Amino acid sequence: MDTKVVLIDRERLGIADSRKWAEAGLTSAPERTMDGTEVFSPRLDALLAEAAQILRNGGLVAFPTETVYGLGANGLDEAAAGRIYKAKGRPSDNPLILHISTPEELVPLVQEVPETARKLMEAFWPGPLTMIFEKSGIVPYGTTGGLDTVAVRMPDDPIASRMIALAGVPVAAPSANLSGRPSPTTAQHVIEDMSGRIEMILDGGPVGIGVESTIVDVTGSVPVLLRPGAVTMEMLRDIVGEVSVDSAIAGPMAADVKPKAPGMKYRHYAPRAELVLVEEAGTDGNKAVVSGSDAIIAAINRLTRERLAEGYSVGILCTDETKDCYPAGIVRSVGLRASQESIAHSLFAVLREFDDLNVDFIYSESFARDHLGQAIMNRLTKAAGYRIIYCDGFGQRL
Ligand code: TXA
Ligand code: MG
């Protein structure tokens, strides 16, 4: 199959950039800058009409959102959803998120909209928040992986939003990567993974946030965080008070436990190399917040020397503040420690780059786990298969 790549030049079309989420410091939901005439210009509609038609015909279209690129299909068409699983090589028990373009489109998809969900929608939609509801009869089990619940999100990116509106159906979309690879944050990443497997890729440039949406289960009396993202735990608690955290976020799943978000049991975001996080014991990642810790740097340099002496190639994942402290290995910065947004933005791209460089080992600095750091460390520890090396204050391995 030929995959058509359509370039959407945001600047020329005068449409909002999803990067505004990152620039806003993630403290509040962005203002919706689009009003029918200006943003949804006839030119954008002309570009998106073909994508919408493909979706209505049961085809697959990859598209940018403010979090990561999605791989879309008609979410009410079981056969179309089935093609997503095939294109990604994704296990069919891993449910998909339905993407909508207005809050009203939620109503026919769910049994009820609980009060907590209303508050969260008000605060964070459109934006990087997915909520889990009891599903209605029109949502096929082929979309929900056989579950009686459905995940729904209203993305903020005007390209995604307008495409969904033109398609006239909820768009089921996982991240547009091959199963097990890091989520795509540029159209180039999507092309690498999906070329020849899907009808169309909309290239809207690099995404703004870089990690997937926050997922919250709102079916019970207390909302449960299933996946951390740019709508942080702190932001959720500000709106609804109590929020509990699913145990799958904290650590590896026991083989006999059924996680609430089925996707959390798979080893996601896995780079080809053996990724190991290096953390100073007793600091919970926090000591490294401002400058990067000397102990972590010493430990990574020691580990790197050992592996190089054994003939392996080594990647080092660090930050702008520390990148000059590593004399050996292939050193890549993921951004500024002082800006968690910058780290989230580049994390998956750097993991993909290490794949391309074919390194055998990646040693990564660890990060604070508050705010957006919870999402960053969740993705990193999963990519590392929960391998963490702890060192003492002198960088000696414990
Ligand atoms: O930011 C995002 O959410 C991106 C963009 C494209 O919107 N999408 C995304 O989809 O990350 P995906 O399929 O890669 O991750 C969806 C996660 C999976 O872990 C899945 O198990 C969980 O959501 N999920 C979906 N439906 C669910 C349900 N009914 N109950 C619990 N978890 C669900
Ligand atoms: Mg994914």
Description:
The protein is α/β, with parallel strands linked by helices and 398 residues long. It has 2 domains: 4-263, DHBP synthase; 274-391, Rossmann fold. 31% of the residues lie in helices and 17% in strands. The chain is built from 13 helices and 16 strands. The strands form 2 sheets. An 11-stranded mixed sheet has the order 1-8-2-3-7-4-6-5-9-10-11, sandwiched between helices. The chain has a 5-stranded parallel sheet with strand order 14-13-15-12-16, with helices on both faces. Strand 10, helix 9 (233-240) and strand 11 form a beta-alpha-beta unit. The longest helix has 18 residues, at 340-357. Threonylcarbamoyladenylate binds at residues 65, 67-68, 70, 94-97, 130, 132, 144, 147, 149-151, 153, 173-175, 212-213, 215, 226, 260-264.
Question: What number is the mean pLDDT?
Answer: 90
Q: How many individual domains?
A: 2
The description of the largest β-sheet is:
11 strands, mixed
Give helix and strand order, one letter per element, not per position.
EHHHEEHEHEHEHEHEEEHEHEHEEHEHE
The fraction of residues assigned to DSSP E strands is: 15-25%
Helix share, percent: 25-40%
The DSSP helix count reads 13
